[in-house]
Amino acid sequence: MIKKNIILTFILFTTFNFCYSQSTYYGYQERNVESQVNYSKIAEDLNKSTQIILINRYYENANRNIELKDYNSAIIDYTNVIKLDPKDASAYYYRGIANYYLQYNRNACLDWIKAGQLGNGHAYELIRNYCN
């Protein structure tokens, strides 16, 4: 009888130890997945922050180029903004103005139409005045 109790105790202890090891292992795995999600979120936030910084820099350069009447460079900068954020109505609007100053009327009108579609109401006034 004592021998059976020792064997039974050994089996229970081994089973308990195995179950504990498995739960600990999966607990670590779960935490590891959780930290991967956090790293992913951090990387996503960093990417968005970098994108915002780049957009602001391109706007600064484009606006300076408009003041200097360097419309070709302004168009490049506004195009870079559009590549980073294709739904930026202001970039289309101002790129249209730069195109208009270079007498690229068709491109200007296309940009103003896109700006209007994206919600820039001032674009429709320019379309009425210059795209007939």
Can you describe what's shown?
- The structure is a single chain.
- With 132 residues, the chain is mainly α.
- It has one domain: Serine Threonine Protein Phosphatase 5, Tetratricopeptide repeat, CATH 1.25.40.10.
- Helices cover 87% and strands 0% of the residues.
- It is built from 5 helices and no strands.
- Helix 1 runs antiparallel to helix 2.
- The mean pLDDT is 83.
Structure, briefly:
By secondary structure, the protein is mainly α. The protein contains five helices and no strands.
Characteristic terms for this protein:
elongated; 132 residues; Serine Threonine Protein Phosphatase 5, Tetratricopeptide repeat; mainly alpha; 0% strand
In terms of topology, how is this protein built?
Blueprint (H helix, E strand, L loop, with lengths): L1 H66 L3 H14 L4 H13 L3 H13 L4 H9 L2
Helix pairs in contact: 1-2, 2-3, 3-4, 4-5
Please report the total strand number as a whole number.
0
CATH topology: Serine Threonine Protein Phosphatase 5, Tetratricopeptide repeat
**Overall domain count:** 1
CATH architecture verdict: Alpha Horseshoe
Largest sheet: none
The shape is: elongated
Spell out the helices and strands N to C. HHHHH
> How many whole angstroms does the radius of gyration measure?
31 Å
Mean pLDDT: 83
- Measured distance between first and last alpha carbons: 104 Å
| CATH class type | Mainly Alpha
Briefly note the structural class of the backbone. Answer: mainly alpha
What share of residues is helical?
over 70%
Strand content: under 5%
